[in-house]
Fold this protein.
Amino acid sequence: MSKDWPGWPTEDAERYQQAGWWAGETFSAALHRWAARRPDHVAVVDHRRRLTYADLVSESEAVAAGLAAHGVGPGDRVILQLPNVAEFLTLWFALQHLGAVPVHAMPAHRTAELEHLADLADARAYVTTDVHQGFDHRELADHLVAARAQAGRALLVVVVGEVGDRAATGYDQLRTADGADRASGVRTETSSRDLALLLLSGGTTGLPKLIPRTHDDYLYNARLSAERCGMTPDTVFLAALPVAFNFSWCCPGALGTLSAGGTVVLARDPSPDTVFDLIVAERVTSLTLNPPLAGLFVEEIGFGGRDTSSVEVVNVGSARLPDDVAVTVGPAFGATLQQVYGMAEGLICYTHLDDPEGLVTTTQGVPMSPGDEVRVVDGEGRDVAAGEPGELLTRGPYTLRGYWRADEHNAVAFTPDGYYRTGDLVRRLETGHLIVVGRVKDQINRGGEKIAPAEVEGHLVTHPQVDVAAVFGVPDPLYGERVAAAVRPVPGQGEPDPATLVAHLRERGLAAYKVPERFAVVDDMPLTAVAKIDKAALRERVTRQ
Ligand code: J2J
């Protein structure tokens, strides 16, 4: 077992293997097997390219050789920050061929997140794009290279797109490695129990954590998700949200689709025009949405002129889908709504495709694996009665037993017997269906995007006028919640102006979605009985403003 992260105890691992949940295969081997079934079938489509399964194998192998020639090898962590382009897949599988480990960054992340990620993962390389949505990622790369150099580490930069005059390697350079190099670049002795990727946690305490996922557990996640979502070789899956997100990547997402032999269509942005045009052009059968997009698309379909006749299943998750929106999704698309409640840490719940309408529109589904163990407990850790609200604890064949290099946090984030404390408040019905009713963790969920208040507070207090900061969610009809902040000024330094604080946070390289949209300046922070900042009182104050 690696000292970087606690894996599953041996007896559980053996049980998972004997049950057939862990199939003993690596992602590199899986891709070759998937491709052998129908090599000429289209595997990936983006706004510029169509790759067959055979293309995906050969291009990922060529890229693996190119990466190997630049010194990337087994176990190396490589930050992948790409929008929805085919190269996300070719690079991801290239890293798998090498036994290297992709670290999923979100396209919206900026220097604050990436510096932390590079440091925590001790990254060997950073793979990014040139300019995306008006932002030059090559400048971000320069910044990261300098930060790593200060720590005495070299960082290889790979750019998908124009390299410009920078000391970076272009994607096309990587993939033109010759045949001899290609053979030496692939086929490492990776075990299916090894680390396959690192996902970013939504986080609650300070800075984001990394979630270790192995070949065995993540392939099971992909395969079983595909089964629960009825995927077949005829599936055409559309990724509207970034594929770096666990939901779009593996639940069932791109990997679930490939495991079923289907086609993955990548939308370069989630605007209605892009998405509805792709649905028609590619005859999309399945798509994954967060609640704000689901609501927006239902409205858009209502305006008329949108053809969704090919769509069979619409997966909605990542934040609570309001019941009144849920009832509109199936009828609008002429498809089956399937709710998804999941987490990058592991556990995924789906409503069943043949569940009665009443369960599909009001619950967030049932844990997908017979190996998932769930408990719903009160504040003292005692199981509550069926139907009563409590915190969800879970462990199982694809749920982590500890974060990457986070011993101290692991001691509190898990029970002594290995259950992950989700921080979510749920009610479990007799049928096993879960309803998410709230949370106990200090996290904001802005329409599916997770924000750790402590992280934003840490940035706010670096402003010379801010003495104390409290960040919290306020209710919002579109996003469910938006980010708000209350600040107490440093005495004698004047009142900080919200625009200045926003500029300060952006300058520090914080991702835009984490920047508070509402501010309150307070002379005194309200406190709870145990002398913690009373965020409920602040929320009420800001909501009334
Ligand atoms: C309420 N809250 C939900 C839902 C997630 C599939 C789907 C989602 C994620 C994800 C994911 C929710 N209703 N339907 O990785 O593969 C909140 C919970 C949960 C947290 C996890 C996937 N679906 N949530 O959202 O790691 O609070 O994963 O603990 O980003 O999102 O966030 P994340």
